[in-house]
Amino acid sequence: MTKITLGVDGMMCPMCEAHVNDAIRNNFDVKKVKSSHKKNETVITAKEPIPEDKLREVIGETGYKMTSYTIS
User: Fold this and answer.
1) Could you tell me if 46 and 2 are in contact, meaning their C-beta atoms sit under 8 angstroms apart?
2) Which of 7, 34, 44, 62 has an alpha carbon 20 to 30 Å from 72's alpha carbon atom?
3) Cα torsion for 21, 28, 49, 54, to the nearest 10°?
4) What integer pLDDT is reported at residue 59 of this predicted model?
């Protein structure tokens, strides 16, 4: 499993978190995704790494901005 932590600017409430989570689930094969507007981050668990540019594009389409990308 791969854990990907993204910094995401622009989320203001739980509905924003759901919007980002849905966009990721609809575009990538993930096991788990959880966003926090308080921490300005999204944590993804997936079988394979997801390319940074593809995540940046999908998050950008939701109206939010991806500010960081870390794989652990």
Assistant:
1) yes
2) 62
3) -90
4) 97
